[in-house]
Amino acid sequence: MTPNQRGFVTLLKKEVMRFWAVLGQTVTAPVITALLYLLVFAQALSGRASAYDGISYTEFLVPGLIMMTVMQNAFANTSSSLIQSKVMGNLVFLQMAPLGPWEWFAAYVLAALVRCVLVASAMFIATLFFVPLPVHQPLAILAMFLLSAGSLAVVGLIAGIVSQKFDHIAAFTNFFINPLAFLSGVFYSVHALPPFWYTASHLNPFFYMIDGFRFGFFGHADVPILHSIAWSAGFFALASAVCMRMLITGYKMKR
Amino acid sequence: MTNSPSNALDIVGVRKSYGSLQALKGVEFSIPRGEFFGLLGPNGAGKSTLISIIAGLVQADVGQIAVLGHDTVGDFRHARRLLGVVPQELVFDPFFKVRDMLRIQAGYYGAGREVWPWIDEMLERLDLTSKANTSMRALSGGMKRRVLIAQALVHKPPVVILDEPTAGVDVELRRTLWQFMSDLHRQGQTVVLTTHYLEEAQEMCSRIAILDRGEVKALESTRQLLRRHPFRFLRVKLAGNAALPEALRELVASESDGSIELKLETGKHPIGSVFDALRDAGVAIEDVQTRDPDLEDIFVELTR
Question: Which segments constitute the ABC transporter domain (chain B) (predicted)?
């Protein structure tokens, strides 16, 4: 292993150890929250017709809930790690280390993916007790998982770079992540929406992430799977380009 | 830029401004390999800005810095592997224990298990062995300071910068750190020290740069710097707390505990002339002491 590779692996390991040290907050809590959503919505709307033939509303709900939780946690992992290091001042240890922008990017994003794998696996296993999900196209599930979790991890990294205090991260979460996540068709099919909101939903990248992920389970979706992959990949590429530019120039990181 | 690998640090024409404030105004000097170098200056002189630029925390507007011939921007990986910086602030990562933190820090620099024995040795030398498995957040300020020093040295850098390592530490720890820094220097490491304890710099540094308002005001060996001050000091205690004759009042440097310190310019104010003036005024001397200027006097003179 070259020194650069070892530096990258160490940062990745450190980022995993960081969320692992508080697993109750980083994995267990979001899974419980998502299961509460499932219980409440499944009970309240159990009689509601599903968007897809032969699929109950509870079944319809589960992939969206998993993906929403994954996206929120991908964002939280990178953004909270970076802002904590900034506020505590210990970011200097990383900034003084011989690590390049690509190593920062890859280590933070991969650590977020590890957390998301744990969150998604725990949710998938837990929801089996409520409703067993079919798996129609595992590759589509994997692709949408990686693109979506990766995208939100990168957005979290951008938020961490731009922010100077916890309030800024909270603003990102409350005014950007949560509205887009809740308006992305987690709890409903966009076909049930009025024309304006139907069109607006198609401009929301989170909608494609959830719709594509759902397709992997049922083989049905609101838009073709290739559209979802293309939108998610495009969003990932755009966010990554912005993030890399910030890391290379030291935006908000170097005085 | 002439980067000489025989120099631990080459600093060439470094300028940095924050808005209208010019923090560094074209700072330029070199530090030869193996030197124990003091970087002194009052608060706001630009010391920390310069160190932050060397460490890669701040971007210079103009200028270049090389560590053992490696540019800190163009060849930052090499330069940073050769450099260890102890930051001034007591920063730490609360998620980790002391030994884990040091192993992580070594990993950032590409060092693996081969430095684990060195980590244990440092823990022992810095009296941290009993705290090796303690969370960083549970350590006292002094202990955190020791860990910061260990973190900077974990990858065995040949050039070490300590930014006020003894600020706010007790006497015992200060002595431990002095001993530790001396040992590092004896082992061939280049040590750059910034401190507000001028006796510390005078004792330990072979060469000193005094920075003031972003400019290098002096850059000489400690001995030359001490010699360049053309003054000496005469402390007199006058019998019966008598008043000093008017002719000597312009020489007063300080007054305390009933004694008066006079600042005498070499060649212009011979000590004998002071005694003559006192005798002519009929003032008796109760006690008298002389002293050569120390670094603090030079520092005050240069940064006035």
Answer: 9-238
Distance between CA atoms of residues A209 and A197, nearest Å: 17
Using a CB-CB cut-off of 8 Å, the residues of chain B touching A89 are 89, 91
| Spatial strand order in the sheet of B252-256 | B252-256, B259-265, B231-238, B285-291
Chain A interface, mutation test: which of B90, B93, B144, most A Cβ atoms within 10 Å? Answer: B93
Q: Does the beta-carbon distance from A21 to B55 stay under 8 Å?
A: no
Listed residue (A24, A43, A21, A72) closest to A182, CA to CA: A72
- The per-residue pLDDT for B1 is 47
Q: Give the model's pLDDT for residue A39.
A: 87
Q: What is the pLDDT along chain B (304 residues), one digit of tens a residue?
A: 445 578 999 999 999 999 999 999 999 999 999 999 999 998 889 999 999 999 999 999 999 999 999 999 999 999 999 999 999 999 999 989 999 999 999 999 999 999 999 999 999 999 999 999 999 999 999 899 999 999 999 999 999 999 988 887 888 888 888 888 899 999 999 999 998 888 888 889 999 999 999 999 999 998 888 777 778 889 999 888 788 888 888 889 888 878 899 988 887 888 888 888 889 888 888 889 888 877 777 777 777 7
Per-domain residue ranges of chain B: 7-226, 230-302
> Which site among A10, A12, A16 would you substitute to test the B interface, given the most B Cβ atoms closer than 10 Å to its Cβ?
A10
For B208, the 3-state DSSP assignment is strand
Smallest CA–CA separation between B18 and chain A, in Å? 9
CB contact under 8 A, A255 and B109: no
Q: How near does any CA of chain B get to the CA of A26, in Å?
A: 14
**A128: Cα separation from own chain's centroid:** 21
Burial class from Cβ neighbours inside 10 Å (0-12, 13-18, 19+) for residue A107 reads: buried
Q: Kindly state whether B142 is in contact with chain A, defined as any CB-CB distance less than 8 angstroms.
A: no
Q: Does the beta-carbon distance from B57 to A88 stay under 8 Å?
A: no
State the complex-level ipTM. 0.90
Superfamily (CATH) of domain B7-226: P-loop containing nucleotide triphosphate hydrolases (3.40.50.300)
Helices B171-186 and B141-153 pack at an angle, to 10 degrees, of 10
Cβ contacts of residue B255 below 8 Å, gap of 6+?
B261
> How many CB atoms lie under 10 A from the CB of residue A205?
21
Based on DSSP, count helices (H) and strands (E) in chain B, helices before strands.
10, 14
Q: Which two tokens stand for residue B271?
A: 């000590």
Predicted TM-score (pTM) of the model is 0.88
Cβ separation of A4 and B108 shorter than 8 Å?
no
Selecting from A4, A10, A92 the residue whose C-beta is nearest the C-beta of B91 gives: A92
